[in-house]
Give the backbone structure.
Amino acid sequence: MNYDPIKVTLTKGELDIVLRPIVNKGGVQQRLRSILNRINRTTGEGEVLPTDEAYMREFVTKRGGGGYQDRFKAILWAVDRARV
């Protein structure tokens, strides 16, 4: 497994999704805050760690719908584009 951060650029639409207010302080919320701390909120440029990518992919495939799945999907779209 490659452990280098993945350089991503989120679109305006993706930023609109991921920057909605984060409610509560559970593990999922803390993980999202950690990921967002590495993404510029104006340009959408940033880095996603491979461990975060794995967490997000498992989260969106193993859980039902909801706000955090949508946010993780938006970040994963940027990760997938970075790999093309």
Remarks:
- The chain has one domain: 6-82.
- The mean pLDDT is 93.
- Strands lie at 6-9, 45-48.
